[in-house]
V-type proton ATPase subunit a
Amino acid sequence: MEYIDNLPPMDLMRSEKMTFVQLIIPVESAHRAVSYLGQLGLLQFRDLNDGRSPFQRTFVNQVKRCAEMSRKLRFFKDQIHKAGLVPSPNPASEPDIELEELEIQLAEHEHELIEMNSNSEKLMQTYNELLEFKMVLQKAGDFLVSSGNHAAAQETELSENIYTNDGYADSASLLEEEMQPVPSNQSGVRFISGIICKSKVLRFERMLFRATRGNMLFNQAPADDQIMDPASNEMVEKTVFVVFFSGEQARIKILKICESFGASCYPVPEDLTKRSQITREVLSRLSELEITLEAGLRHRDKALTSIGFHLSKWTNMVRREKAVYDSLNMLNFDVTKKCLVGEGWCPVFAKTRIQEVLQRATFDSSSQVGIIFHVMDAVESPPTYFRTNHFTNAYQEIVDAYGVAKYQEANPAVYTIITFPFLFAVMFGDWGHGICLLLGALVLIVREKKLSSQKLGSFMEMLFGGRYILLLMSLFSIYCGLIYNEFFSVPFHIFGHSAYKCRATTCSDAYSVGLVKYRDAYPFGVDPSWRGSRSELPFLNSLKMKMSILFGVVQMNLGIILSYFNARYFGNSLDIKYQFVPQMIFLNSLFGYLSLLIIIKWCTGSQADLYHVMIYMFLSPFEDLRDNQLFWGQGVLQVILLLLAVIAVPWMLFPKPFILKRLHTERFQGRTYGILGTSDMYNEEEPDSARQPHLDEFNFSEVFVHQMIHAIEFVLGAVSNTASYLRLWALSLAHSELSTVFYEKVLLLAWGYDNIVIRFIGLAVFAFATAFILLMMESLSAFLHALRLHWVEFQNKFYNGDGYKFKPFSFALFTDDDD
């Protein structure tokens, strides 16, 4: 045991040692100190103002200012995106500016942009109205010409043109003569011209017909150009209309209907000369507005481009400042109101670096008083921190998805790095499919720098995050595929010739006549001659089923052994004596013994029925084994193992709760008097400090029930977990049979036809089935099953997973989605 204790610590096996520290920071250097700690990223602050709302905290005004600046920056980003510009990914090199200066600059830029947008919207609205007026003049003029020719013999004159669009004030001056009141015949024919969305024309015409009871003439023509809708900024198709009617009541109704349908009405003179003159004036103003709009757009794009060069730097600066003030809000003022007091967790190895950073902050802020940094004792459990890299991070995330390790608890990720991809490969063993996965993993790894800087979709982001898991899964799949001797389900003579040949020299069909062994066994993996033989399925079933049991028993034993190292590390001898020892005895008395029988049967070539041996070990332990005996003394060993398994159950259940009760009684016999003398020793501590003790009362019934549940769960789980490992056999068999079906029933069947089209279709179907069913769906299925084996069958033997992550205040952890 001394040798084990003297071994150097293994990386990732235990979380980093943490310490609880207190900081006393003068007010003048507080901002700079917290900012430097954010750059270092190795201190997690505790919130000493947890009971206060965000609006009751000290630096709430600074946080509000940063939030307002963040809103302005998001506004700039949206404007750049709408303009079709790309913000510069590399921030412009310029001297650092203060937050107050940046706030003034952002306010000026926002005011300038809002003013430009407002002017642009007004000009665009005028331009759209002029464009609509031009189309109305063109289309409505055609209607009036045809109507005038038809009514040339009559003395009726269209004496009034209606104009109802208030927004068209600029063009109204051009039509002063037309807008003058002209005496009209109240019983004569009038008209209203305008433009409306094409989607509303049918409903508009129907409403006019009903409102005037059919006493109107509705003419329409599609507009030549699409017009931008100011509400949605989308181009919409519109239709020009002219409504002929008679009477003042009809005019009022038609105008109200036009207003309710959002139609724009424009005055069109009857006189062709006047109409031509107004059309020329409208075209002239349109050309002027186009030039003005283009100039305004260029000026706006220039301003946005200038902002885009600095947007990334400004965003990072505001985000950091907001994070600094949020962290300062977690600190408390001392009694003198001249210093801020903070508490937090940091790794032991980081204490020196934190002290150096605090000294630099004191010097840079020209403070006369240094920052006090000292270590304190804490009652609550420290956070869990593992130092990972690009390779190990994905495996740690798999474990953390189940539950974060308790402080200094044995970390399953150390073993998951190997066992997870290996168990995946046992279910996915095919070196052809493994090569396909390997190519995909290598592409992700080679393009790692490029992809890490891009914004990926949810699926690609998940795939990129697990690129190193995919790499090991593919390598192990190639290894297991070579053992299974399957390349897209096709066996190859890679490691030499087969150990079997035809029974007779004249046989032409070795699969139906049978094979005979004539040389040493195939050197590596499954002999290719098993492929297609009558014994293939029974042989592979037996091999993979027994192999699955062996892997399961080994991994479950590893989990129990890790529980021993946990108990030894935390100095818990009760768990070693009354959990580890009986669990090892129970598991290996039954399933360890089964694994031994499997290995002996493989080595000796015995025909013993292991099902019979294990069943009658419980039903008739003293019965003679006869032909099922694999070694001398097997019957006596079975009786001993069965007795040990029966003894192990009460061994797990009863001693530990009673021993805990006795220890608790001895420890707290004088507890009442001790509390009377020390009841005020913690009164001066901060209300939310981690130094406050939390004294839990001992509840024997709760402890006993918990131990009973744990013991029953282990006993039943030993059986169910071992059976659960048979999924390795089931999924491996399913993957192999699916590959065979696609190869024989699709590819070979299509290749049997002497037709290039059928062969191409067969090859396409085979490639599609391989890519989407075998490489995607089957790999996902094997991944999830391997995940379940690690989370349930392996980790529940030793892993509590009830800790919490170390989340330091670090600028490097910010993402683009953080506000």
Summary: The longest strand covers residues 18-26. The chain is about 60% helix and 10% strand. The two ends are 52 Å apart (CA to CA). Confidence is low (pLDDT under 50) at residues 149-187, 672-689.
